[in-house]
Amino acid sequence: HAKRSGRNQFSFFTEDMRLRAMDRLRIETALRSVLSRRELRLHYQPIMDLQTERVMGVEALLRWNSPELGEVPPTRFIPIAEEMGIIEDITCWVLREACSMNQRMLQQGIGNLPVSVNLSDIHFRSRALVDAVAQTLKETGMEPQYLDLEVTESLLMSNLDSAIDLLGELSDLGVTVSLDDFGTGYSSLTYLQRLPLDRLKVDRSFMQNLVADQRGQAVTRAVIALGHSLGLMVVAEGVEEKTQHDWLRKLNCDGVQGFLMARPLQEDRLLEFLKAHPILE
Ligand code: C2E
Ligand code: MG
Ligand code: MG
Ligand code: MG
């Protein structure tokens, strides 16, 4: 394609744009019935405690297998679901499913497994979220301290005062809150101290320079120390190599999540994983 002349390149790009728009329209159409046709499911990625190598929790990650489109990644369909105004319904489904999974693990004698759910920026701005969380906890019987909600910096910074209020209300319910993808947003460090958070998740972009590069180590060390000095647990995301894992242990990180330990797993595979790696209790 790079060899095309300027004129052909132009028509190539418009064709590409047309295809992308069509793709989007097909996703939008298929998304309308995603809940009624029960096409969503959750995978769970273990989060390991670095001291004990036990499972300290799992992150619920949304998967959509569409009969028309095949597997559509969450990074592709969630922004569209947000624009369509159906992200609230999807998040409620995720919350219910994640809490039910926690109850199933408990009933099967595996233990009380903390589960993290990702919140969309848009849903977070609505008051209905607090009610939805409260209702899900009540209906599933899940103990609140085992539900963790992951929020992003962009979400918090867009309206700091209302974010503080909402985080406070969520904390009052007894759930925990994690700041996801930490280090990729624009958060000012003075804001961070005002937010009632429980956990920092260091973005996986930090992992790249952790091993070879002394400066990379210095930055990650500082981020972990910052989290600890604010009284937060620190979990590193995207750990793919043993050397990264070992560095994070040296740097006093609390938890690790990544392909090295486990990929996101469907529930029966998670059960197998939990037989080999007990839960931290
Ligand atoms: P996230 O919350 O930061 O989730 C972590 C992502 O990193 C997941 O991608 C996971 O599969 C991937 N990952 C985990 N370990 C590794 C690793 O070692 N290396 C690499 N390269 N990647 C790793 P996934 O499942 O495709 O999800 C992407 C994003 O979609 C999530 O990022 C989150 O922002 C969003 N998402 C997923 N599920 C939900 C959901 O239920 N609701 C909302 N609102 N967003 C969701
Ligand atoms: Mg997350
Ligand atoms: Mg993340
Ligand atoms: Mg991330």
TrEMBL record:
Domain of life: Bacteria
Positions of the EAL domain: 24-278
Protein name per UniProt: Diguanylate cyclase
Organism taxonomic ancestry: Bacteria, Thermotogati, Deinococcota, Deinococci, Deinococcales
